[in-house]
Amino acid sequence: METVVGARSGAGTISATGVEVVTEPRRAGLVVMHVLGEIDLLGVSLLRPCFEHQLQNVRALVLDFTETSYLSAAGLSLLLQTGADARSRNIPWALAAARPVLRPIEVTGLERRLPVYREVPPAVDAVLAPGRSMSA
After folding, report:
1. For position 129, what pLDDT does the model report?
2. Is residue 48 included in any domain, yes or no?
3. Taking residues 53-62, what's their average pLDDT?
4. Is 14 helix (H, G, I), strand (E, B) or coil?
5. Residue 117 and residue 73: Cα distance in Å, rounded?
6. What residue numbers bound the domain in which 91 lies?
């Protein structure tokens, strides 16, 4: 696993075979994690500690899976666990996802349990919505 400082201040990139994660800090303690590639069992083993680390250090989290080309059952389990961890810490979170990720979520009926959006901006708006008491 390699960690590289990204082009934006505070951004970072972690990559492994088939998966790349770019962490983008934003305002009000929000972090957007851009996940690219295929999320299979190997990808989950990379992502789980990344997501857990972020949930210990953020006030809100958006997972950007819009450039993710495959989501396995292990990936679905990871999303459910991330949601449970976020709720237990009272951290608002959302998932932005394109068709390759939305399809397994819809087929399993998990869209009722996961805060899913088709694009990053509405996901960001949802976690920073008024009433969330998140100040810049």
Report:
1. 86
2. yes
3. 96
4. strand
5. 20
6. 2-127
Residue 13, Cβ neighbours under 10 Å: how many? 16
Q: What is residue 133's DSSP assignment?
A: -
* 136 occurs within a structural domain: no
What is the number of domains present in the chain?
A: 1
Question: d(Cα 68, Cα 93) in Å, to the nearest integer?
Answer: 18
User: How far apart are alpha carbons 70 and 61 in whole angstroms?
Assistant: 21
Q: Does residue 12 carry a pLDDT above 90?
A: no
Q: How far is Cα 56 from Cα 67, in angstroms, rounded to an integer?
A: 25
Tell me the H-state helices in the chain.
41-55, 73-88, 99-107, 120-127
Q: How does the average pLDDT of the chain come out, rounded?
A: 86
| Helix-helix angle 73-88:41-55, to 10 degrees | 10
How confident is the model over 66-124, as pLDDT tens digits?
A: 999 999 999 999 999 999 999 999 999 999 999 999 999 999 999 999 999 999 999 99
DSSP symbols for 29-40: GEEEEEEEEEES
Q: How confident is the model at residue 4, as a pLDDT?
A: 30
Distance, CA of 59 to CA of 105 (rounded, Å): 25
